[in-house]
Amino acid sequence: MQENEVRTELVIPAPINDVWEVLVDFSAYSTWNPVMEYMLVDGTRTKVRAGKGTPFARDFEGEITSKEPYVLRSQGGDPEQFFGRHRWELHEHPGGTRLVNAEEFSGPMAEAVLAQTRDVLVREFDAFNEALLAVLADQRL
Fold it and tell me: Where are the alpha helices (DSSP H) in 33-72?
């Protein structure tokens, strides 16, 4: 793992296409995701609410930079201060799909911000992963 990267992984016992469909359905995030909401403003620009219900709740604008099959990328922030490049990767895995949920941060504030918030971000990423796992398990019932 890179020093300025936060990364979590989880195996979801569901086909990769099923996971992908949920992952890219931004309008449904508010129904299943306890920590994050995405709203598409236009084709690629987004408004994001992260850390919902926590002292670290924050709203920011970003953009989807790639939505190729099984790799979703977004970015946001101020490149001159603190900038994040997020990616969700899906990989076929025995018995399901391996989700990689990662974000790389850059800018002069990145090191200091991550020193204070890395554990919070890992918990948020894990909560996202677990919520994705749960919504797919519910769909399979």
Answer: none
